[in-house]
Amino acid sequence: MQFTLEFGGGLELLCDSVKIHKVNINLLNDSDILTMKDLLSWVRTNLIKERPEMFMKGDTVRPGVLVLVNDCDWELSGQLDTTLEDKDVIVFISTLHGG
């Protein structure tokens, strides 16, 4: 499955300062669905280059990270249980900024 992953609000610094990633992810365990929980695990293993604790806490994103799936807040679509489809666009934006 192909996805576009976008990181903003400083989260791109955890991914070698690359904001937009076009990725191909194989389905896990020959399943025909991929959930946000699966995607977050893949992102932690394959994209986050440093300080993963700044992006994730446990199996989910840290408080203060806004997640959009096709421009829709993931809280409206089931959060970790959100089912992803080919060519979805997932955006991660940190709402916490130093000052």
In short:
11% of the residues lie in helices and 34% in strands. It is mostly beta strands and 99 residues long. The radius of gyration is 13 Å and the shape is globular.
Q: What is the CA-CA span between the terminal residues? A: 39 Å
Which residues form runs of ≥5 with pLDDT under 50? none
What is the CATH homologous superfamily assignment? Beta-grasp domain
As for the number of domains, it is 1
Strand arrangement, major sheet: 2-1-9-6-7
Which class best fits the helix and strand makeup? mainly beta
CA-based shape: globular
- What does the average pLDDT come to? 90
Keywords: Cytoplasm, Isopeptide bond, tRNA processing, Ubl conjugation pathway
Cross-link (Glycyl lysine isopeptide (Gly-Lys) (interchain with K-? in acceptor proteins)): 99
Family: Belongs to the URM1 family.
InterPro entries: Beta-grasp_dom_sf (IPR012675), Mopterin_synth/thiamin_S_b (IPR016155), Urm1 (IPR015221)
Tag the structure with descriptive keywords.
99 residues, mainly beta, Ubiquitin-like (UB roll), two-stranded antiparallel sheet, 9 strands, 11% helix, 34% strand
Topology, element by element:
Layout: E1 2-8, E2 20-24, E3 34-35, H1 36-46, E4 56-57, E5 60-61, E6 65-69, E7 72-73, E8 83-84, E9 88-94
Parallel strand pairs: 1-9
Antiparallel strand pairs: 1-2, 3-8, 4-5, 6-7, 6-9
